[in-house]
Design goal:
The complex is a heterotrimer. Chain A is an alpha+beta fold. Helix content of chain A is 24%, strand content 33%. In chain A, the strands form 4 sheets. Chain A has a 6-stranded mixed β-sheet, sandwiched between helices. By secondary structure, chain C is an all-alpha fold. Chain A: This is Multiple sugar transport system ATP-binding protein.
Chain lengths: 361, 302, 309
């Protein structure tokens, strides 16, 4: 177990800046997920922690020790890759023990550790097979095992489930969570899949453009996104956005949408005092919208044109003030389509962003 | 056709008129390919039949006629006693010289190129891409441009006119294409494999020998085939660098055939020619697809 | 936290920088020494040496007497060199055009889902496995005017048949082309076939749906898509033509007279037996220039699109 601290880390490849002075402190035993679209720098950050690339500026600390210039093997880390990266010419047993043999551990110790890891991951029957004889799920277990045998303080996962089909992905996701609870190790996990991020993480770091946009618990990320990027990236279907203008006149704060329609924002907790006339974007998640009027709720004008059945629930698609919007409804609920109706939401659960900077208001 | 059940007419009707037209163009197609194949096979046929004839039969003046009386004497003579201008020991010394040149040159050049390719893909250092590009461009420089200074270099190393000199020269000039081959191969492997090995604590040579080499058997085979045939067929470097005692088979063959003294023994010449071509031909026929892959891999993407 | 107190000292000390510059990836740098040495000593060093000494008065041994362009003036005045260059130009154009055309056509024919494709490819390619010396000697025998093809066909009743190209000053260069095409057309075919196969099947389906005739598809769609393979083949075949040496030595040894001399042979002869090194070096410098004419446009075409992407 060890804490990980990333201090003003910058990575540049030639003229391209991939990470910009990034700071991140991870506590001992914490499960951190780096979430973001491809090209946001999350894998680069992980590789920098692993020591697999040269950082341009800043430091990486693991377990209270500056390891910025240490070799990967000396950092006390284990890593699991998306493509499994099992050595094809070695049996599973050899794959697991390779690092230990390189380190020159006594034979008995190597065998003991391999046996223990195999037991934890339930891959004992596979030990003498070649990677090519394993299924995708089995391969990824072996890959996790390879990190496990090294008795490391920090586990690094680089999109470990992306190559698996949906069913296996769910299974292994649960397994990784169980592993974290059992071992209590620090884990850094890179993914672009928000379900993985929200289910696994103690804290999620949403990344974009080589920066961490928001670092918070999954709940916080989902409920109180700090900017429009995070709000739009997390959640499926995406949060609905309505453009407008703040108005503080005429009793209480409201958003003026289109031609004179006023959406009251009573109950919304402003981070900065609202200014009259400021262009702003209102964000409401699809499940926060209802057809039925709610007490203390505000109303939005909408025209629905399509209802998608998702099984457990349905999605009604339409337009609010010209922008595409969706609303989650019960499967048996009747949604009026093709004509203007009003839907309702609680402003205290909604988000409000500056239209220009995208920052939460 | 008539035996088909009546329930499946739709499956039969559309394919009705087409086969005839196709067949006509197919005949033309196969005709052209057959003629081309004959053009390619004819010299081989002439070589073999000539080498099995006696000289009087050759003087009848029909190179296409099969031998009336098969004799293996030209083959024996080509191998043991044909004259190369200076000596009359046949091709066998040349054969063994070629073996002594080809094996170490192949091993050395393939190993160096494999390490080059691996270092270029996984251990880039300042200037590594520049040197690689320079290497590829250098491979297009005519050998004649570099040959004389290399004579001086090998002479100053004290190895000019020895096997070591030819081996060195083959290693140098085999490097560009082989390095390209290995670099492209290693670049096609998932980079995570290398990262995983580094996290496991393996260093440059351990990753090369324990992870990379075991994975590169197919490309090793391609490289070996390329080098064995290429070096065996070399003439220029052998004649310049090896020294008279170490002339490879190609040089001795040319000396046997084109030495102007005495009666021209065409049957012996052809036997000697086949003997010289035998090793690369054997490699070619045994390796088949790998040979094709080698020349395609070297050329299709640079 | 205790960490923060040593934070300031944790910046990489100067020794770390030196370590990174020299010691890091040391094994890789050591391992790459043969490559670096080859580039610097052979490709750069030896080439510059040759170019430099082509401006000297070297005879049997290299000397430092600088004579400017005198060697080049003599070279271009020499009949043997001029014959060599003319031969190479004629040979080069014929060999390039014919091998590319025939190679492509054979590849197209072999791409028609034919039977025995592997057998045919084996037949077309086997000459390429043989050395140019072997090729030259076989064709020398077949084209032998007294006992070869000419006599054979005359004896079979075609009295007027004449095929004496290797002893005919005007025709000998075509004899070289015939042997050369036998040797390498299969190679071009295999490369072109690989190029044809690399084209997505859906292109063919789309063209068929659009009703474009097969020959038209080859000409207007497939051929432009094979640009990369064609250019690479051109460069390989082209630079091999400039080096043409072994085949000439085996087939004609430059004869009759000097009728089939080529520059590479001129250079080697003067270098090792003519006792006129300056001439040889000037000749090889010209050969280098000729290759650069091929190489530079190719390099520009090859490396420009990568930047755009």
């Amino acid at each position: 177990m060890a804490s990980v601290s990333i201090r003003d880390l910058a990575v540049r490849f030639g003229a391209v800046t991939v990470l910009q002075k990034l700071r991140l402190d991870i506590a001992e035993g914490e499960f951190i997920v780096l979430l973001g679209p491809s090209g946001c720098g999350k894998s680069t950050l992980l590789n920098a922690v692993a020591g697999l690339l040269d950082v341009s500026e800043g430091q990486v600390w693991i377990g209270g020790k500056n390891v910025t210039w240490e070799e990967p093997k000396d950092r006390g880390i284990g890593m699991v890759f998306q493509s499994y990266a099992l050595y094809p010419s070695m049996s599973v047993r050899k794959n697991l023990s390779f690092g230990l043999r390189v380190a020159g551990l006594p034979k008995a110790e190597v065998e003991h550790r391999v046996a223990r890891a195999a037991k934890i991951l339930q891959i004992e029957p596979l030990l003498d097979r070649r990677p090519s004889q394993l299924s995708g799920g089995q391969r990824q277990r072996v890959a996790i095992g390879r990190a496990l045998v090294r008795d490391v303080d920090v586990f690094l996962f680089d999109e470990p489930l992306s190559n698996l089909d949906a069913k296996l992905r769910t299974e292994l996701r649960v397994e990784i969570k169980r592993l974290h609870q059992e071992l209590g190790s620090t884990m850094i996990y890179v993914t672009h899949d928000q379900i993985e991020a929200l289910t696994l993480a103690d804290r999620v770091a949403v990344m974009s453009g080589g920066l961490i946009q928001q670092l918070a618990t999954p709940k916080e990320i989902y409920r109180r996104p700090v900017n429009r990027f995070v709000a739009g990236f997390v959640g499926s279907p995406s949060m609905n956005f309505v453009e407008g203008r703040l108005s503080t006149t005429g009793g209480g704060v409201a958003l003026e949408v289109g031609e004179g329609a006023r959406v009251p924002l009573d109950g919304y907790v402003f981070a900065t005092p609202p200014q009259d006339g400021r262009p702003a974007t209102l964000g409401v998640r699809p499940e926060q919208l209802t057809l039925a009027a709610v007490e203390g709720g505000s109303r939005l004008p909408v025209v629905f044109n399509l209802v998608e059945s998702m099984g457990a629930d349905s999605l009604a698609w339409g337009r609010i003030a010209g922008a595409l919007a969706s609303m989650r409804v019960e499967p048996e609920e009747e949604v009026p389509t093709g004509r203007p109706v009003e839907i309702f939401f609680h402003p205290e659960h909604a988000s409000l962003f500056d239209a220009k900077t995208g920052e939460r208001l | 056709m008539t035996a088909l059940p009546a329930t499946a007419p739709s499956a039969v009707v559309p394919s009705g008129p087409r086969p005839k037209r196709v067949a006509a163009s197919r005949i033309v197609l196969y005709g052209i390919l057959l003629v081309a194949a004959l053009y390619y096979l004819l010299p081989l046929y002439v070589m073999v039949t000539t080498s099995l004839k006696g000289l009087p039969e050759i003087r009848l003046g029909n190179i296409f006629a099969p031998p009336l009386e098969v004799t293996f004497e030209p083959w024996v003579k080509a191998w043991t006693s044909a004259c190369t201008g200076l000596t009359c020991k046949g091709l066998s010394p040349g054969f063994w010289n070629s073996v002594k040149i080809t094996i170490p040159s192949t091993v050395l050049s393939v190993l160096i190129a494999a390490v080059n390719g691996y270092a270029l893909v996984n251990w880039r250092f300042r200037g590594s891409e520049f040197f690689f590009t320079a290497l590829i461009f250098g491979s297009f420089i005519p050998y004649q441009v570099m040959v004389y200074p290399l004579v001086l270099v090998t002479a100053s190393l004290g190895i000019f006119g020895t096997l070591q000199a030819v081996i060195l020269i083959h290693t140098i000039f085999g490097m560009p294409i082989l390095t390209l081959l290995f670099r492209n191969y290693f670049a096609s492997l998932p980079p995570e494999l290398f990262k995983a090995a580094r996290v496991d604590g393996a260093g440059f040579w351990r990753i090369f020998f324990q992870i990379m080499l075991p994975m590169s058997l197919p490309i090793l085979a391609v490289a070996i085939i390329l080098q064995v045939t290429g070096i065996w067929n070399d003439f220029l470097f052998g004649v310049i660098f090896a020294g008279t005692q170490n002339y490879p088979m190609t040089v001795q063959l040319n000396n046997i055939v084109n030495s102007t003294q005495g009666v021209r023994e065409y049957n012996v010449n052809m036997a000697a020619t086949i003997l010289t071509g035998l090793v690369p031909l054997a490699v070619y026929f045994v390796s088949g697809r790998l040979f094709v892959r080698g020349i395609a891999a070297g050329a299709v993407k640079g | 936290m205790a960490e923060t107190s040593i934070d300031a000292a944790a910046a990489p000390p100067p020794s770390r920088f030196l370590y990174n510059l020299f010691r890091r990836n040391l094994s890789a740098k050591v391992a790459a020494t043969p490559m670096v040495a080859t580039v610097l000593v052979v490709f750069v060093g030896c080439t510059l040496w040759t170019v430099y000494y082509s401006f000297t008065n070297s005879r049997a041994l290299p000397t430092g007497d600088f004579v400017g362009f005198a060697q080049y003036e003599r070279l271009f005045a020499a009949r043997r060199w001029n014959v060599s260059v003319r031969n190479l130009l004629l040979f080069g154009v014929l060999s390039l055009v014919l091998s590319m055309t025939i190679g492509f056509l054979l590849a197209v024919l072999m791409d028609q889902k034919i039977r025995l494709e592997n057998t045919l490819r084996t037949i077309f390619l086997y000459p390429f496995a043989l050395s140019a010396i072997v090729t030259g000697l076989v064709w020398q025998w077949i084209m032998n005017p007294t006992l070869g093809l000419q006599t054979t066909l005359r004896n079979l009743g075609w009295e007027s048949f004449t095929f004496d190209w290797i002893t005919n000053t005007d025709m000998v260069i075509y004899a070289l082309v015939i042997a050369d095409l036998w040797h390498k057309t299969g190679f071009v075919t295999v490369l072109m076939l690989a190029g044809l196969r690399s084209i997505d099947d859906e292109i063919w389906k789309a063209a068929r749906v659009d009703g474009i005739p097969t020959w038209r598809t080859y000409l207007s769609i497939v051929l432009p898509m094979m640009r990369g393979v064609i250019i690479t083949t051109l460069v390989i075949v082209g630079s091999a033509i400039v080096r043409l040496y072994d085949l000439v030595v085996a087939l004609t040894d430059g004869g009759p007279g000097i009728a089939s001399e080529v520059p590479a042979k001129y250079v080697i002869n003067y270098m090792f037996s003519g006792g006129n090194l300056g001439q040889a070096l000037a000749g090889s410098t010209i050969m280098l220039a000729a290759v650069l004419v091929f190489l530079i446009p190719w390099a520009i075409i090859e490396f420009r699109p990568k930047k755009e992407r």
